[in-house]
Write a structure and sequence with these properties.
The chain is mainly beta and about 130 residues long. It has no helices and seven strands. The radius of gyration is 18 Å and the shape is elongated.
Length: about 130
């Protein structure tokens, strides 16, 4: 049974090949599998312990200007920094698992970019 924690925010950057893409909305879900260890001493409540590795994944949205390179699905990991509140950020590397590109306003160079990603390695929380 997985245990999950989801965090979200409305700012950050995704850096692909040296180009920073501003993020306007994001969510990150962290997961850990658990193993049930309920025994006769557990009273009426089930008991669990963490099992195996943790993992994280999420979604991000942002705007790119015409001509800005967007991440390639399935390519090498890209660096991501997610901001939730003024003094807290989460950072890690992601592999893009899907992307959607849409122009929402006629006559503009701004293009909406929506991504899903799988985190690779650790996600690090920093309080500045």
């Amino acid at each position: 049974m997985p245990s999950t924690v989801t965090i979200s925010g409305s700012a950050g950057t995704l850096t692909v090949g040296g180009t920073a893409i501003p993020i306007t909305a994001w969510t990150v879900t962290q997961k850990c599998d658990t193993r049930e260890v309920t025994d006769s001493n557990s009273s009426t409540n089930s008991e669990f312990i963490p099992e195996g590795h943790t993992q994280w994944e999420g979604t991000a949205e942002g705007w790119v200007q015409d001509g800005t390179a967007t991440p390639t699905v399935g390519a090498a990991a890209a660096a991501a920094v997610f901001l939730a509140v003024a003094n807290t950020q989460w950072a890690g590397n992601v592999i893009i698992t899907s992307k959607n590109i849409a122009t929402q306003v006629k006559g503009t160079d701004a293009v909406k970019l929506s991504l899903t990603f799988q985190g690779t390695g650790a996600i690090t929380e920093t309080n500045t």
